[in-house]
Amino acid sequence: MIAKHGSYFHLASHNSSLILHIRDSGHPELLHFGARIRDREDGFPGLIQDFSFIPGIETAYSEDGGFSLQTISALMPGSGKGDYRLPALELEYDDGSSICDFLYHDHRIYRNSGREHTREPSHSHADSHADSVSNSDSQAASQSPEPAVSPEPVPGARALPMPRAPGETLELILKEAVHQVFLHISYDLFPETDVFACRCRLVNRGRELHIHRIMSMNLDLSGDDWDFISLEGKWIREKHIQRSPVPRGRTSISSRRFASGADHNPFLILASPGTGETEGECMGFSLMYSGNHEMNLERSEYGQVRVQCGIHDHDFRWRLGEGEQFSAPAAFFSFSSGGLGALSIRFHRFIREHVIPPRWRNRTRPLLFNSWEALYFDFDETRLLQLAKKGKKLGMELFVVDDGWFQGRNDDHSSLGDWVADSKKLPGGIQGLSRKVRKLGLQFGIWIEPEMISPDSDLYRSHPEWAISSPLREPSLGRHQLMLDMSNPRVVDHLHQTLRTLFLDCEPDYVKWDMNRSISDPVSAHLPASRQKELGHRYTLGVYELLKRLTDEFPDILLETCASGGNRFDAGMLFYSPQIWTSDNTDPGSRVKIQHGSSLLYPQHCAAAHVGSDPSHQTLRNSSVSTRFHCAAFAPLGYELDLQSLSPFDEKIISGQVALYKEHRELFQFGTFHRLASPFEGNTAVWQLYSEETGTGIVGYFQLHQEASPVRERIRLRGLDPGKKYTIRTAPHFLNILRFGELINGYLPFKVKASGLRGLAHKVISDNYLFPAETREVSAYGDELMEAGFRLWPQFTGTGYNDRVRIMGDVSSRLYILQAVDEAAEPG
Ligand code: GLA
User: Are 718 and 341 in contact (CB under 8 A)?
Assistant: First the structure.
């Protein structure tokens, strides 16, 4: 619901309210963002909390009925009129001045557009719009002739991601007090998911100006006692949860890599102290953008916290000519009074229904296997096909040829840009390989890294000017490669043609779109000197443009983006690719943390996960194939290890995993995700997936370290029907007897040696004998499982073993399957 009552606007989703107000001066302000409150025809004057005098040293906006901008809760604050906090907008006019003071001019309310991709009219705010409701006073005013605004002349501007199909939209149109510059702030409402989005567009109807800073969203929240939660990390250690109280002053997280980066995901949460998974107030803010970003907090001396996010203003300066407009990326946000768990579930629903390509909303993902960590660059067609056959035998569905398939690419020093098959490795070309893979009954996938160029490549030899670098300096390389100048439409056109040809040639079912370096030497041969600081944003728009063209033409290709794992994992990328490679790290000891952190915002069907090798290629840690699977199964699943050198034991286990995953695929990928225990707070991660429709669920229990003589444990489930009866049973779990060393002699009817030559017998038994562990099944009502909990059997304590002892270890796990019982069908 969006209601206007005089100078008040009330945007209400099912559980939240966003209340805005236009002051007499014309400044818009935020009165409330939080739990839903009753709508009032007479507005919300009680929420206005002005000082009745100008406090101390603050500046009065004007002498009549004066107030200070420093003490109000602004929406998109400018600067130069007494608000000394971080501005959301910084402009420089042609006279060199930069005062920025935007006041209410008009508004629009768009109801139930139902469109997948809504944009307000781009030519003039006065354009008629079929399903819009306008402020009638200003309708008259807007009939006076105004200079037309050209659609954004920036390549890729049309491809900027924004949430799909809002329920309703309020567009506030503000005008700079002196200059002919208009700011359109659109608040989209997604009532069922309790998410709001904000989009800003600056329209210049006056003389040329420069934008130095334009945030996507700014909210000055009342109350300043908040904890700040964000996802920090780096390569192979992405999305770790950090939490600390918001200090006075400014706190900022950001990226300046030309990618959203793993250092800080473009996402933050404010939570009242003490907020946990199931209780407490919290709100999350996500920027839908894949380039340089900043997410800022400023705790003011007047008891507010300013939260804002947008394109990073470092190296950003945008020339906006007369009649031009600039759209900032969208941001979205949500509030929960039921803790972090409820907040995440809202975001998960929102991303599924309003962000990822609609075609993938309900489509389960194939079980894939990938050549990278199996073969790296060392393959030819024969080896690939041997691997493919093995994958097929184990029940996998889609084979991905990762890096190394294109001409001369035998290591990472060359060939990026030359997207034709290496004829020595693949004599029948990529088409020949794809046909042979399909003949085996598998789908076919391929790896590309379109935005990159190797100095040693035909593309570089013919177009050195297409690489981003300074003509005055030796370029600094990342992974021996340069970045292509995606601000140049000729580069985008070339990539479009090249990839189109590739896709038509081998008709991939899946494409992995990688990006393996951060920017350096940011100079574009395409842009004039006065526009060099536009390169970062234009690069990102160029990427979106290419993604748009290719996904429009090939909507059935399952696109997985990647940037050395999760270095560009954001809602902007998810707008085009329904899933992203979460991390190059597949070690479950690290992965549980990465996937746990990721789940704060991103649903599990967006965060691809693979079963890797033992020991892990990233940490050299050992873990069982069961634990690697248990962790990777909470995602679109893949295998990425040398399937041909599996032990007979692991091979049998993997066949069972594949069958289990296929049986519960819908639940693994789309079940409602609950975090029951956090690896950032204790020794375990416990995750639950549940489907209300089918009454089925899966619980994954992960232990990081083995304690000697551990405590008894229980798991309290969530979201079940209290009156429903469920069975909960251990998913088939087998131990490798090598685990026990000489101790195994206590449990076998005969004696074996664990080491030396006679240890061979031990090895032969371990290869062929699946030692069953923990075959448990209990039944209980939902209330018992949620309130009293599911009691786990005690762990091994060094004294005795039977089938009521849980043998775990460092980095170990269990899966439990939950199933509602049809009591009517039970034998009386
Ligand atoms: C990046 C990706 C890996 C793999 C390699 C190939 O590191 O994250 O998954 O594709 O590139 O070079």
Answer: yes
